[in-house]
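Figure 2 data, in text form.
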Amino acid sequence: MSSSSTPSPGQDRYAASLRLSVAPMMDWTDTHCRMFHRILAPGARLYTEMVHANAVIHGDRQRLLGFDASEHPLALQLGGSDPALLAQAARIAADWGYDEVNLNCGCPSDRVQAGRFGACLMREPELVADCVAAMSAAVDIPVTVKCRLGVDEDKDYDQFRAFIDRVAAAGSGLFVVHARNAWLKGLSPKENREVPPLRYDWAYRLKAERPDLQVVLNGGIASVETAQAQFEHLDGVMLGRAAYHDPYVLHALEAAQTGSPLRPREELLQQLRPYVEARLAEGLALKHITRHLLGLFHGQPGGRGFRQVLSEGAHRPGADWSLVEQALQVTRDQAARVAA
């Protein structure tokens, strides 16, 4: 962080966002998704999809890195294992205005392993430390790490803590811990999010033994109650798939944290309308935004109708906000029939 003695409003917002964040999720947490999540949880810390350092350096930066100012506080998650390239990508991220750069040490996919980054880096703490040191030297925004407890058959807490200690000494003061192992062979990425058992106690123990570190818990958090139970032990929670498939949970959790009243789902969705219409006017197809909205009425009367209308209609040429209004009306009608 900057050495300024008086935090800026942006720094204050970033610090306050530690309690609640939304995980980086490939193919999901693009700028349209993040705009929706920002409405649901105005104070949450949002993360981009993982972007490889090479793509940041050589790719279409507007497409890969562009975001709306209202998305702050916002972190860019980087993939890679070359310290020099990661440092260069981190500088670009800082220049683009990101509040944090996060190194992925948790993704178990075959493609990621082939590139020698993601979860396999849990076996190379010295390399991760070199990466974090290079990134930290390049920028004055926080450099953080998202990791697992270990890989494959790792069951040694001391080995996990040694990884954290080595990387913390290199410059990372915040660790997002997906509290399960990653299996590098034999499980798909989806299975890696569900099959290896959760061990929250490792994250609790890490925070107790290293109180100066910020420890955020990720994995298996799908309800307000589960999330709230973690604050006794940890600095924050990160929601992943739950925030996508049942996004109202994100709103409910922030409301529980801030004491603000719960807002109706339809009211929250209407707040997105100006953004949607602005993007449509630029030529974006409605389907690129509405795919992130399908879970808003999850578990509610009329939720199936809402999803069906959007799924079937958003890909059609000329689809506009009136389709969202149609989906909401179907939802109201179905809910009224259930209530009757």
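Caption note: Residues 9-258 form a domain with the TIM Barrel fold (CATH 3.20.20.70).
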